[in-house]
Automatic annotation (TrEMBL):
Domain HhH-GPD intervals: 58-208
Name of the protein described by the UniProt record: Endonuclease III homolog
Enzyme Commission designation: 3.2.2.-, 4.2.99.18
Function: Bifunctional DNA N-glycosylase with associated apurinic/apyrimidinic (AP) lyase function that catalyzes the first step in base excision repair (BER), the primary repair pathway for the repair of oxidative DNA damage. The DNA N-glycosylase activity releases the damaged DNA base from DNA by cleaving the N-glycosidic bond, leaving an AP site. The AP lyase activity cleaves the phosphodiester bond 3' to the AP site by a beta-elimination. Primarily recognizes and repairs oxidative base damage of pyrimidines.
Needed co-factor(s): [4Fe-4S] cluster
Pfam families in alphabetical order: HhH-GPD
Taxonomic superkingdom: Eukaryota
Organism: Leptomonas pyrrhocoris (Firebug parasite)
Catalytic activity: 2'-deoxyribonucleotide-(2'-deoxyribose 5'-phosphate)-2'-deoxyribonucleotide-DNA = a 3'-end 2'-deoxyribonucleotide-(2,3-dehydro-2,3-deoxyribose 5'-phosphate)-DNA + a 5'-end 5'-phospho-2'-deoxyribonucleoside-DNA + H(+)
């Protein structure tokens, strides 16, 4: 049976327009220290492109402020593919040690610098298929790189914020499991004219209002048009049964196993 194409909510355009207006006044870290802001604008065009790529590689699972500090540290040493080549992996790691998964990122950035110098004459490639083959670079990074560095819209950059809020807005099927699933779903219906703005709009909203846990629906100016407004906050505020009444404790049998061992037989008894 042929799978039916996803049909977005009929009022998605109204919500998108409201989101655009809201983000004009809602300031977020991504607006001032997002990856697109972290290059040295006095450097050559090719060096700036490399800065954007490194910033994106550092940003995964890392707050913008931490990424910005790491980039400043690297740029103080002169951040080029050649300078990264000259550093040991340990030296590079020490410069980015505050970012998430810094060991893996140091390894990947070293590998990327080597590839750029060896195969691309020191310049970040201009083809999506070539960039996405780099270690540590996925569809999100590649799409955002070409958007930020070359002003080319190839696809939608979907991170955890875009993934989460797209689900809350009903812009993707409820069956999506990963950011890559969300990217494909959004690109199947969202007009291409919005591909270059949707990431920035949703990331800012996710950093400030539509947070992963306990979203601030009461403060959100989109709550009247969001199909999932207050649902998660209400669920989080419901008291658990254990908080409503405290069951009487049963006397512990002198020779029997402890409660946690009885429920999980694989757990060893702690010595007293």
């Amino acid at each position: 049976m042929k799978r039916m194409a996803f049909v977005p909510p009929s009022d998605w355009a109204k919500l998108y327009a409201r989101l655009e207006d809201y983000r004009m006044t809602l300031k977020a870290p991504v607006d001032t220290i997002g990856c697109h802001m972290l290059r040295d604008r006095t450097a050559s065009k090719e060096t700036q492109r490399f800065h954007t790529l490194v910033a994106l590689m550092l940003s995964a699972q890392t707050k913008d402020g931490v990424t910005a500090v790491a980039m400043q540290t690297l740029m103080q040493r002169g951040l080029t593919p050649q300078s990264v080549q000259a550093m040991t992996e340990s030296e590079l790691d020490s410069c980015i040690c505050k970012v998430g998964f810094h060991n893996t990122k140091a390894k990947h950035i070293k590998q990327v610098a080597d590839i750029i110098v060896r195969d691309y004459n020191g310049n970040v490639p201009r083809e999506y298929s070539e960039l996405i083959a780099f270690p540590g670079v996925g569809p999100k990074m590649a799409n955002l790189f070409f958007q930020d560095a070359d002003h080319r819209i190839i696809g939608i950059g979907v991170d955890t914020h875009v993934h989460r809020i797209s689900q809350r807005f009903g812009w993707v099927p409820s069956t999506v499991k990963t950011p890559e699933d969300t990217r494909k779903a959004l690109e199947s219906w969202l007009p291409r004219e919005h591909w270059g703005t949707v990431n920035h709009l949703l990331v800012g909203l996710g950093q400030t209002i539509c947070t992963p846990l306990r979203p601030k629906c009461d403060a959100c100016k989109l709550s009247d048009v969001c199909p999932n407004a207050f649902k998660e906050t209400k669920a989080a505020g419901e008291p658990k049964l254990s908080t409503l009444r405290s069951p009487k404790k049963k006397p512990r049998a002198a020779a029997g196993p402890s409660d946690d061992v009885a429920e999980n037989p694989t757990r060893k008894r702690e010595k007293r």
